[in-house]
Design a protein that fits this description.
Rossmann fold, 6 helices, alpha/beta, 7 strands, 7-stranded mixed β-sheet
């Protein structure tokens, strides 16, 4: 996650009435170290949710500190539905994102929120695979039937961390991320 991506998410969440939101799920979370040291931008979002009293669970297929559910999302069966779900920078690692999206929507209460980000223009980054899925925000919206689009945008990354991103920036080329905030009908 990039700083601009986290800023976009926080800005949009601040404009939504989250008073009824009690719990959340972060899918493809990475462990505590990843969320706080490697990509501290995520921590800003999760601190904001904690301040709002929203209990957040973290799901990842790799075990690690701070992972609440170690499983593949295709095998996950939550005990209760969630009010908000984060699916950030995950879909490009899935062979069948449409299948996963349908499962994830089933984890969400009616009226619940879904925050989705996917690289639009970015280098391949296998973890363990990168399928090359790079939709625009409008293309991404089509994967989420029975949702209302609250916010949708392709954002440009001005401060990349990687060498290639910095080199491309010299020529005015920026990494891009498709971002959505959706509400389940």
């Amino acid at each position: 996650m990039f700083q601009e991506e986290a800023d976009w998410i926080i800005d949009k969440l601040r404009s939504i009435d989250l008073s009824g939101v009690k719990n959340g799920l972060n899918i493809g979370a990475g462990d505590w170290w990843f969320r706080t040291k490697t990509q501290p931008e995520q921590g800003i979002i999760f601190s904001f949710l904690k301040e709002k009293g929203i209990a957040l669970h973290h799901l990842d297929q790799k075990p690690g500190e701070g992972i609440d559910f170690v499983t593949d999302v295709r095998r996950f069966s939550p005990e209760r539905p969630y009010h908000i779900i984060f699916l950030t920078n995950v879909l490009e690692h899935l062979r069948n994102p449409k299948e996963i999206v349908q499962r994830v929507l089933n984890f969400l209460v009616p009226g619940g929120y879904l925050v989705v980000t996917v690289p639009r223009f970015y280098r391949r980054h296998p973890d363990p695979i990168d399928t090359g899925f790079r939709p625009t925000d409008r293309e991404l919206q089509k994967l989420f039937p029975d949702t209302q689009v609250l916010f949708s945008e392709v954002i440009r990354i001005k401060r990349p961390r990687d060498r290639l991103g910095k080199l491309l920036g010299v020529f005015g080329i920026r990494w891009q991320v498709s971002c959505l905030v959706l509400k389940k009908k």
